[in-house]
Amino acid sequence: MPTSRFVLAVPFLALFGLSLAAGRAQDEVKVTLQPVAGPVSVLFGQGGNIGVSSGADGVLVIDSQFHELVPKLKAALATLAPRAPSFLVNTHFHGDHTGGNEGLAQGAVLLAHEHVRARLLAEKKAKGALPVVTYTDGLTLHFNGEEVRLIHVAGAHTDGDTVVWFKGSNVVHLGDLYFELGYPYIDVGSGGNVLGLIEGLEILMAELPDDVKLIPGHGQVTGKKELGAYLAMLNTVTERVRSGLAQKQDVDALMAAGVTRDLDERWGHFDFVPPRKFVESVVASLK
């Protein structure tokens, strides 16, 4: 089954950092493609799931995983269309979503929220890896016969998150606003906050059609029901932590009180974000 769960075998810094470990780990990564709806497909490999729209107007790609995987990603994209991408959208700045920018974006227009460009510049990324079109709130592309909306969600996973909504295909790529694998990574140090994440997802849930197909940043393609369960988990843990903080509990006390215990069977198997790490990010968000 196509899956991005291979990430569980690679160190945390590789998942959210700049590059894959060289050699054997890179060779073992298998890039697979899954049609979603209309011209939209998803590529699973190493790092963030890659969305693809391929049709008469060309190819649009969402995120780029790692530089070392560019040859495999190009080979997979070539099975959809012989031409290079016309557009590459970054959902946020983390290395497992932008590491392949320079290789995949050759000849393409690279788009992202303005904070993504600023953070990649701060990391001294090469010019070819930088977004050349940036926006504050979002923008709309008309591509492959449908409206493609780029929507900024503020202060959620990071401070520069973008949701990509293929209106005609009824497909939404949520980037790392949605970790189908388990508890999410909230990058508080880069402007992320669980409250912004919850607010952004609640706004989206009110607008999404019941039969929408959702591409998460990590994990399998799901629907609105599954996203609702994820949102319920975020709300539950956040309220429990808020209550515990009001009683002067620290992270140790919160974990001892079992703020995630009844949720861990479903959400606690993502090794890179174990329950405690998630609770730490919720505490940091609320403080």
Overall description:
The chain is an alpha/beta fold and 287 residues long. 33% of the residues lie in helices and 21% in strands. The protein contains 11 helices and 13 strands. The protein has helices at residues 12-16, 24-28, 70-78, 95-98, 101-104, 114-122, 194-207, 224-246, 251-256, 264-267, 275-286, and strands spanning 32-37, 40-44, 50-55, 58-62, 87-89, 109-113, 133-135, 138-143, 146-153, 161-166, 171-173, 213-215, 222-223. The longest helix has 23 residues, at 224-246. The model is unreliable at 1-18 and 20-24 (pLDDT under 50).
Please supply descriptive tags for the structure shown above.
globular, 6-stranded mixed β-sheet, Metallo-beta-lactamase, Chain A, 7-stranded mixed β-sheet, 11 helices, 287 residues, alpha/beta
Compact overview of the structure:
The chain has helices at 12-16, 24-28, 70-78, 95-98, 101-104, 114-122, 194-207, 224-246, 251-256, 264-267, 275-286; strands spanning 32-37, 40-44, 50-55, 58-62, 87-89, 109-113, 133-135, 138-143, 146-153, 161-166, 171-173, 213-215, 222-223.
Supply Rg.
18 Å
For this structure, the CATH topology is: Metallo-beta-lactamase, Chain A
> What's the arrangement of strands in the largest beta sheet?
1-2-3-4-5-6-7
Strand content: 15-25%
How many H/I helices? 11
What's the rounded overall pLDDT mean? Answer: 92
Low-pLDDT windows of residues: 1-18, 20-24
Q: What does the main sheet amount to? A: 7 strands, mixed
User: Based on CA inertia axes, which overall geometry fits?
Assistant: globular
Q: Count of DSSP E strands?
A: 13
Number of domains: 1
CATH C-level class: Alpha Beta
